[in-house]
């Protein structure tokens, strides 16, 4: 048993206080993904997850920190994150790539561009997707597709507008056919 003087963020919930038992300090390091260096060598894992980098504190204490939102990393033992291109943010799902940061835009030719009519891109996604049958997106840069109005239908994916159902016929419940 012993005590550790950590000195940073003292007396805040979730952080060691100025004096704490070594076992509590090591437990805190383990729970935060930190790596504790001793005179005998490394205790723990030095491989950070994607979207993190290996941060060196003082006295040889290292731990993984998340990259800022506009930076990414493949993880491992990298010591700094790389910048995403302008208009991109780190992909929250994998941390090792960047996505377009604006809804209604998709990654086209390595750049964030507005999705064309008939396609959409929700916030946080960098891919323009075709509107499903029965829906449409008439404007470029759509964040979502709209359901066709009651007497209109869109038989195929990627519709920029809906077709009117001829007199005497009805539109199916999903808005995909005029029968």
Automatic annotation (TrEMBL):
GO biological process, one term: proteolysis
Highest taxon in the source lineage: Eukaryota
Pfam family, one: Trypsin
Protein name: Peptidase S1 domain-containing protein
One GO MF term: serine-type endopeptidase activity
InterPro entries: Growth_fac_rcpt_cys_sf, Peptidase_S1_PA, Peptidase_S1_PA_chymotrypsin, Trypsin_dom
SMART domains recorded: Ephrin_rec_like
Organism field: Chondrus crispus
């Amino acid at each position: 048993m012993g005590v550790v003087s950590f000195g940073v963020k003292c007396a805040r919930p979730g952080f060691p206080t100025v004096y704490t038992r070594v076992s509590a300090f090591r437990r805190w390091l383990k729970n935060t993904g930190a790596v504790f260096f001793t005179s005998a060598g490394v205790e723990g894992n030095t491989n950070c997850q994607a979207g993190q980098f290996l941060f060196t504190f003082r006295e040889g204490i290292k731990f993984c920190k998340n990259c800022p939102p506009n930076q990414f990393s493949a993880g491992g033992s990298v010591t700094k994150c790389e910048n995403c291109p302008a208009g991109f943010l780190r992909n929250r799902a994998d941390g090792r790539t960047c996505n377009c940061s604006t809804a209604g835009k998709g990654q086209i030719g390595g750049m964030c561009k507005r999705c064309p009519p008939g396609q959409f891109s929700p916030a946080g996604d960098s891919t323009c997707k075709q509107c499903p049958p029965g829906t449409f997106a008439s404007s470029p840069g759509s964040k979502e597709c709209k359901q066709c109005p009651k007497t209109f239908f869109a038989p195929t994916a990627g519709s920029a507008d809906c077709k009117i159902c001829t007199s005497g016929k009805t539109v199916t419940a999903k808005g995909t056919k005029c029968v």
